[in-house]
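Hi team, as promised in this morning's meeting, here are the two structures we talked about. I've kept the exact order from the run log so nobody has to guess. The first one is mostly here for context; it's the second one we should focus on when we meet again. Sequence first, then the predicted C-alpha cells.
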Amino acid sequence: MSEKVKQDNNLQLNQRIEEFNDIKLLFNTFGETAYRAAWKYFFSNGYEVGYERFMKAVKKGTLTPEKFKSEPVKTIENFLKEFFRERGGNQPEIWSENSTIFLKTERDVWCPAHDAVAISGINHKDICSIHKRAFVIGIVKTFEEFFPGLTTNCYNVSSRFLDENADCIEAYQIIYYG
C-alpha cells in the first residue's frame, strides 16, 4: 500500500490543507479540467485500499462468491464498516435500505475539510466529491471487478458545503444481476 494511503487520517488538518492546496494548484493552472485528474487520483487511492482489503478478506475466508451473491448489499456495507472502524478517526454512520448503502456524518462532527477549505482558499462547490467520495467509490468499485453484473451508483444526499445546517450523507446504490 502506498505511503499516501497508509498515512491517511481524517483528523489531520495539515494533511487536508496540503491536499486541498495541491488540488487548488491544479485548478488554478488547468481550470476545471483538473477535476477529473484529481478525482481519479483519490479514486485510485480508494481502489488500492479496496483491493488490499478484498484480498485480506478472501485470505481469511470471510469473503466468498457465495456469501456475496447471497447478500451483496450487506457484504459491501460490512466491508465499509470494517474499513472505517480500522481507519479510526471520525466514524460515519453506515446503514442500508433496500439496495442502497448510506454513509452519514452528522453536521456537529468536526471535519477537517471545512477548516482546510477556509485555510487553503480552494473554491470548489463540492470538494468532497473530488476528495472523499471518490475514495469511497474506489473502495466499492473493487467488487465490480470480481462480480460481473454488479454496478454501483453514488450520489450526494446532503452536504455541509451546500447547506451549513445539513448532515453529510452519501448514498451508494448497489445493483447486482449475478
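And here is the second protein, the one for discussion:
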Amino acid sequence: MKLQEQRSTSNTNKCCPLTNRCRKVLLPTTAAPVMGLWLLQAQLPLLLLFSGLQRPTAAVKVNFNLAPDSFDDQYQGCSQQVMEELRQGDYFTKELEARRNYSRVWHNCHLIWLNQDKALPENMTITHAVAILVYTLNKNIRSDFTKAMVSAARSPWQYKHSFHFKYLHYYLTSAIQLLRKKSVMKKGSLCYEVHYEADFYLEAYTGATIRFGHFLSSSLLRKEAQNFGNQTLFTIFTCLGAPVEDFSLKKEVLVPPYEVFKVVNMSYHPRGNWLQLRSTGNLSTYNCQLLKAFSIKCIPAPVVIATLSFLISVIFSSKSGDIQIKMRGGRDKRVKSRTLFNITFKEKKCLREMADRREERRKLELRE
C-alpha cells in the first residue's frame, strides 16, 4: 500500500492483523524524547539477526541507542567516485574469496537476472540488480551481511580491515536511492506501509525512537505477516525504502539502515506483540568512508601532527587534564594539555582514537 507522505497530525483507522479488529491510531508529528525499550538479552539489530532463538524467560531493560555501531554510509555526494573506486580496486574479488559460496551465489543471481530479460531503471546497472537478488534470495548471505553491518564496522579502521561487504553494501544502498528517485519523479514523495515479523518478543513505549541499523526486507502484503505465533510484528511506514518486486519477484520493500522511526503504537496480544513505526528521517555516522584513510571525526591540527613526530608515546590523564609524554631520550615529562601543544578537547579525543587504532592493529598482527 502506497501512502502519500504527510507530516500533519491525523487520526487514521488501522486494523490489527492479530485480531482483525480496527482501532484509531494517532500519528503525531512532534518528535518525542528517545525512550528506553524493553528488549530481550541484546540490542534490536542482533535480535533481528538471531530471530530463531527461543524466547528467554526474563526481560532485561536496556537503553536503545539507535544502533550507533552499525555501518550506515549513504554515500552522499560521492556515489560515482565510490563506484569508480570499487571498479578499479580488487574489493569484489577479495570479498568473493573471503566468504564461502559467495561467488556461487553471486554468479547464480547474475544468471537469474539475465534470464528475466528485463529493462533496467535509469542509471541502474546489472550489478545493482544482482545485489538486490543476492540480498533478497539468499538467507545465509543476508544473515552474514546483517551481522557484519551491526558488529564489524564499529570504527573506520575496523571497517577498512574487517568489513567484507563493501561492494554489496554500496550497490544495495545505491539501488534503493535510485529506485526512490524514480518513484519520487513519477508520483511525488511516497511512503509505503510494509510488514516485518520477528521470532522474539519486543516491548516498546509509544514515542520511542529506533533505527534498525541494517537493511530490512519487508512485505507489502499484510496477509503474509498474519500467520505467526509467539513473536513481534512490525507495521512500518517507511519514507526512504524502495520497492524491489521487479527484481526479487516478491511484493517487497527494502528499508535502508539509516532510516529512523518513531513508535506510534504498541499492542499486546496473546499471539504476539504488534508495533507500528513511522519514519521520522535519517541518521548516518559514516559518509563516503571507502574514499577516506581516516574518519572525518579525527583530523588533528597540523601543529599536533608535527609535534607528535618527536614523541614515542602520548599518555592522557582524564582526571587532571595533563599529558604525560615520553621523549626519544627516555625522559618523561608531564605538562598541562594546552601548554605545550595548545591542544583542544577535540584534538585530544582524536589522539586517543589514533592510539586506539594503533592498539587494534598491534593486536591483529599478534593474532596473525
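Starting points for discussion:
Residues 82 and 291 are 7 Å apart (CA to CA).
The chain has a mean pLDDT of 71.
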